Amino acid sequence: MPRRFPQYLSAPFQVLWFETDELGVLVIFFLLAMVFGSFFWLLIVVGPYLYSRVKRKYPRGFLKHSLYFLGILKMKGYPLFFEQRFFV
């Protein structure tokens, strides 16, 4: 079965006009709105908008690195943050 070759190799995966990290923020606010209601329904619209504005100021992948520094996410295939020497 033939597969299409992407036109831009470095283009991020998108659903409608949301990139995957923005879609994750949207889903988190949706879940909060389903559980708590009221104010969180407004954040479904405002949250991804504000996140996309902040995201433009930083390089690609800053959310993943921020989660790593907070200790929430582990990066696979990379050395620890405090490594001083690397042996190949």
Set down the secondary structure blueprint.
Layout: E1 14-15, E2 18-19, H1 20-36, H2 39-55, H3 62-69
Antiparallel strand pairs: 1-2
Description:
The protein is mainly alpha-helical. The chain has a domain at 14-60. 48% of the residues lie in helices and 5% in strands. The protein is built from three helices and two strands; from the N terminus they run ββααα. A two-stranded antiparallel ribbon has the order 1-2. Strand 1 and strand 2 form a beta hairpin. Helix 1 (20-36) runs antiparallel to helix 2.
CA-atom Rg in angstroms? 17 Å
What is the overall pLDDT average?
Answer: 81
Low-confidence stretches: none
Spatial order of strands in the largest sheet: 1-2
Relevant terms:
88 residues; mainly alpha; two-stranded antiparallel ribbon; 3 helices
